[in-house]
C-alpha cells in the first residue's frame, strides 16, 4: 500500500497507507541508530519466547469460551486518546464483561504519559488476575501512542502471560527488535505485506521461537495466507484498516467460507475488533474462533 510514497506530493489513499508511510520513515530512522546486526545480536540474548499459541489453546480448553488477549492501548486513529487524564491513584479503568463463571473479557486502558513503571507492573498483573491468556502491547508511536519501551516494561514486570507485539511490520528489523524487547509473538498484517515478505518473516519468527499472528480482513487476504505453509495463527479483523469501519459479521462470513480449510490445517483463529458484549463474543465463538 506504500506505492508512490516517495513522491512529496502524493496523498495517502486511506488510513492504512498513511500509517505505512509513516512507519517507513520511523523504521528507517531507527535502523540508522541501531543497525540490523546489532538488533539481531540483542535478540539472541533475550530470554526464550513463551508459547503464545499454547497459552491461548489451554485457556480455550479450560474455560470453554474464547481465550482472552488483553490489549494495552492508549489511543487509536478511530477513537483518539482513550485515557487523556489518567489518575495514578485509581491506576486502571476496566470494563468487565462476564462470559461465564470462570472467564471474563477485561479491557484496561491507560495513559502511558502519566504512569510510572511500577504502575505498569500493577496493570499487567491486573490483566493476569482477571483471566487474560496473553497480552497485546501496542508499539506504534505516531498513531496509537504506544512504544517498544512499554513492551519491555511489561515483559520485565514478572507477568507470565505471553506478549504480542502489535505493530505495523514492514521490515524484518522490527521482528528482531520486538524479540529483543521481550515479545513472544508479533502481528503480521496481510494488507501491508506481499506474500514473499510474509513467508520470509514467518520463517524468521519460527527461527526466533516466536508466534506470528497473521491478520486478514477479507476473503482475498485469507486465501493468500492459507496458501502459505506453516501458518498457525490467523486473526480475522472485523475492522477495515482502510476505512476503520467495523462489521462484526465479517468473522462469521469468512469462517463460513473457509472454516473447513482452516480446521483441516489446524490453524487457530482470533476474532478481532468490535467485540464489546458477551453476545458479540458468543457470536464469533459460534463461528469457530478460539480467542478474542
Automatic annotation (TrEMBL):
Q: Which CDD domains match?
A: IGPS
Q: GO molecular function terms here?
A: indole-3-glycerol-phosphate synthase activity; phosphoribosylanthranilate isomerase activity
Residues covered by the Indole-3-glycerol phosphate synthase domain:
16-89, 119-292
Leading EC class: lyase
Source organism superkingdom = Eukaryota
Q: What is its EC number?
A: 4.1.1.48
The record's Gene Ontology biological-process terms are: L-tryptophan biosynthetic process
Q: What pathway is it annotated to?
A: Amino-acid biosynthesis; L-tryptophan biosynthesis; L-tryptophan from chorismate: step 4/5
SUPFAM superfamilies named in the record:
Ribulose-phoshate binding barrel
Q: Which UniProt keywords apply?
A: Amino-acid biosynthesis, Aromatic amino acid biosynthesis, Decarboxylase, Lyase, Tryptophan biosynthesis
- Reactions this protein catalyses: 1-(2-carboxyphenylamino)-1-deoxy-D-ribulose 5-phosphate + H(+) = (1S,2R)-1-C-(indol-3-yl)glycerol 3-phosphate + CO2 + H2O
Matching InterPro entries = Aldolase_TIM (IPR013785), Indole-3-glycerol_P_synth (IPR045186), Indole-3-glycerol_P_synth_dom (IPR013798), Indole-3-GlycerolPSynthase_CS (IPR001468), RibuloseP-bd_barrel (IPR011060)
Q: What is this protein called?
A: indole-3-glycerol-phosphate synthase
Query: What organism does the record attribute this protein to?
Result: Aegilops tauschii subsp. strangulata (Goatgrass)
Amino acid at each position: 500500500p506504500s506505492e508512490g510514497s516517495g513522491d512529496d506530493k502524493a496523498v495517502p489513499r486511506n488510513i492504512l497507507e498513511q500509517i505505512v508511510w509513516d512507519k517507513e520513515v520511523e523504521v528507517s530512522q531507527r535502523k540508522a541508530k541501531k543497525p540490523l546486526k546489532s538488533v539481531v545480536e540483542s535478540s539472541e540474548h533475550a530470554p526464550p519466547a513463551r508459547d503464545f499459541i499454547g497459552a491461548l489453546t489451554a485457556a480455550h480448553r479450560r474455560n470453554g469460551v474464547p481465550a482472552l488477549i488483553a490489549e494495552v492501548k492508549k489511543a487509536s486513529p478511530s477513537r483518539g486518546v482513550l485515557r487523556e487524564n489518567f489518575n495514578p491513584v485509581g491506576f486502571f479503568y476496566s470494563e468487565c464483561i462476564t462470559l461465564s463463571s470462570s472467564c471474563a473479557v477485561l479491557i484496561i486502558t491507560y495513559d502511558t504519559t502519566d504512569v510510572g513503571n511500577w504502575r505498569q507492573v500493577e496493570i499487567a498483573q491486573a490483566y493476569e488476575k482477571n483471566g487474560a491468556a496473553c497480552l497485546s502491547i501496542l508499539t506504534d508511536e505516531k498513531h496509537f501512542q504506544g512504544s517498544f519501551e512499554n513492551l519491555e516494561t511489561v515483559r520485565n514486570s514478572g507477568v507470565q502471560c505471553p506478549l504480542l507485539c502489535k505493530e505495523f511490520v514492514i521490515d524484518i528489523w522490527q521482528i528482531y527488535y520486538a524479540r529483543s524487547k521481550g515479545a513472544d509473538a508479533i502481528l503480521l498484517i496481510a494488507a501491508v505485506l506481499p506474500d514473499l515478505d510474509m513467508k520470509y518473516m514467518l520463517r524468521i519468527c519460527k527461527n526466533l521461537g516466536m508466534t506470528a499472528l497473521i491478520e486478514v480482513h477479507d476473503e482475498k487476504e485469507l486465501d493468500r495466507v492459507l496458501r502459505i505453509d506453516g501458518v498457525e495463527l490467523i486473526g480475522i479483523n472485523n475492522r477495515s484498516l482502510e476505512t476503520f469501519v467495523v462489521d462484526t459479521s465479517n468473522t462469521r462470513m469468512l469462517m463460513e467460507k473457509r472454516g473447513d480449510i482452516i480446521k483441516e490445517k489446524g490453524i487457530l483463529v482470533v476474532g478481532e475488533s468490535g467485540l464489546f458484549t458477551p453476545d458479540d463474543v458468543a457470536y464469533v465463538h459460534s463461528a469457530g474462533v478460539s480467542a478474542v
